[in-house]
Amino acid sequence: MSLSIVILAAGQGTRMHSDKPKVLNLLAGKPLLTHVYETAIKIEHREIYIVYGCGGEQVQNTLESSQVSWVKQEEQLGTGHAIQQVLPDIPKSDDILILYGDVPLISEVSLTKLVEAAANTGFSLLTAYFDKPYGYGRIVRDGNDNITAIVEEKDATEEQQNICEVNAGFMVIRAEILNRSINSLNKKNKQNEYYLTDIVEIAVNDDVKVSPILAESAVEVQGINTRTQLSEAERYYQIIQAYRLMDQGVGITDPSRFDLRGELEIGHNNEIDVNVVMEGKLKLGNNNSIAPNCVIKDTIIGNNVKIFANSVIENSIIGNDCYIGPFARIRPDSVLDDHVHVGNFVEIKKSSLGKRTKANHLSYIGDTEVGSDTNVGAGVITCNYDGVNKHRTTIGDNVFVGSDVQLIAPVKIEDGSTIAAGSTITKDVDANSLAISRTEQKLVSFWERPKKK
Ligand code: UD1
Ligand code: CA
User: Fold this and answer.
1) Does 17 qualify as catalytic in the annotation?
2) pLDDT per residue over 262-279, tens digit each?
3) Pocket test residue of 7, 59, 79, 83 for ligand 1, highest count of atoms within 8 A of CB
4) Among 1.10.10.10, 2.160.10.10, 2.40.50.140, 1.10.274.10, what is the CATH number of 227-435?
5) Collapsing DSSP states into helix, strand and coil, what is residue 27?
6) Per-residue confidence at 323, pLDDT binned at 50, 70, 90?
7) The CATH number of domain 3-221 is 3.40.30.10
8) What are the strands, taking DSSP E only, across 95-210?
9) Nearest CA residue ID for atom 13, ligand 1
């Protein structure tokens, strides 16, 4: 028996009140659809079909995979109608695993059980028990506890609304059974839609037995229809990630204030304080600490690095034993060698700083190579932009750049030189020399301040 997988992702998601197609909303930095897809591909299958509609190409572009067959649902007339679009493409002998693109936390374990359960009856359904089942389709069972129908919230009687067993939105159905019943779907319901869920009653009336599988946990089948549900799923996901990292030995001050939107490879003895947001691909060595309110994206960090509060680092490489911040900003393509200090209100962009170099206060260093053991004083600016083009600055080893210096790029400061505070440097500076460019101090004695008229 081979398996076709269908992911339904055509809906707009009106309950989100957003211009974005619902399945493109992000959970831990990744579209809902991508979460579902990445779990789906773990299940052995012949083909994955994604039914898309709202958002069109935008939805298709989220998955780079060429292994997906995209099927367009021009008009969103319901989940049953969505399946109708793809059914002709699926071989009659296949089992079809149907997933909803707005239920992102589904586990591989539950899906595997579901697929196995369909082997005998040709129809299995994932259910869950919710204390507050509001919004979900309710599972109707007969006196022998067999599933006979799914009734949608809006169409349910008061008695049915009290049922706490819900349709999780996942089923496996043999293509041949679905083909037999699909044309019996109609829009005679409160939402005037073709409900896929009506298939259950149609199939049961046709003597098919539905094998129920209970989801591993209720959260994994949480559907995302509103922004509140999205935020709940996000926090759940983050806490799971935080616990997993803590089990690996990462110190996380407060898992409810931890956000990883990507992948983190991390060594031992690291400490992450509250409200740190980590995005993209990150790699951290050992013995690092990250203070509150830092944002770190796509960055590699060595060992024994201290990142102080409110620092922002993106797409950079940080060596060992560095101190960064508080309030530092390291922009893309920057490389800090070992023992570098970057202090408050210092911005580094597309620049490299050699071993033991320090830029501790209020500076802009852009498009610059700085050697080792160099001190960049407070308020130093590399003037890299002439209004049209960017130019590079080179600063050698063991250079002392005094405070409030402007280095007008392109310019080169050789090893061992000293730049006097307050200088504007427009020409290259030789090694071991002093460059000073400022008007000599004048003194006007008995200076009278202007008086108010
Ligand atoms: C659906 C189920 C409900 C179940 C719940 C689980 C139906 C009729 N109801 O309700 O029993 O408890 O999911 O989360 O199936 N979609 C399309 N084309 C359409 C309509 C929807 O592709 O024409 C897609 C949506 O993008 C979404 C999924 O199908 O990914 C589910 O649609 P949604 O409108 O969210 O259904 P629910 O009301 O949540
Ligand atoms: Ca839904």
Assistant:
1) no
2) 999 999 999 999 999 999
3) 79
4) 2.160.10.10
5) strand
6) very high
7) no
8) 95-100, 123-129, 138-141, 147-151, 165-174
9) 169
